[in-house]
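User: I'm preparing a small set of examples for a lab meeting where we compare how different chains pack in three dimensions. I only have the primary sequence for this one, and I'd like the structure in token form so I can line it up with the others. Please keep the answer compact; I'll paste it straight into my notes.
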Amino acid sequence: MCCGTKRLTQIRCPSDCIYLATAREHPPAVAVRQQQRDVSLAVQFMRDFGERQSQLFLMIATFLARYEPGELQSIVDDDVHEAVSALASTFETAARGVIYDHRPASLPAERLAGTLKPLLLEAGQHGGTAFERDTAVVLRRIADAIGETRSQEPGNHRAFLDLLGRIVRKSDGKPEEPPADSENSRLIVP
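Assistant: Understood. Below is the structure token output for the 190-residue chain.
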């Protein structure tokens, strides 16, 4: 019981512990079902996308999952919806040959759109009208995905952002290690 509840939090486990290895290989059923739902939703959002649209969707999803607004500020799904809808309108009008910058109504959405737009413009430097159309389609699909995710979790104002956070892992390239506490370690290293 102690091993299962205090593993890696209060008890420093050696890396070769068979119970720790088993726990990592077999996550709880709740976590597995959540992962299956998340992947199913992501696949549903990307249905009928071409290669470029899929890449754009993944790039935007990664950006949104890693986006960190300024201090003491946070964003919710409504801000993301506003930002991607405004950017979609901007790219739709650009595909028709009209240069008009649509702006979101809220300040957090405007900051998000202002940070995302240069990334999209850089990705489509030589894409022309086809890239603008694809970007608009992907942004509209993200807006629809936000609505669908929110309908499944009506009380959660960050349902879509939470979904992206679970799908897109935030990592700095280093493998995850348990906290080092040399005083309490019982592992003897020769």
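A couple of notes for your slides: The CA atoms of residues 53 and 134 lie 6 Å apart. Residues 49-167 form one domain.

User: Perfect, thanks.
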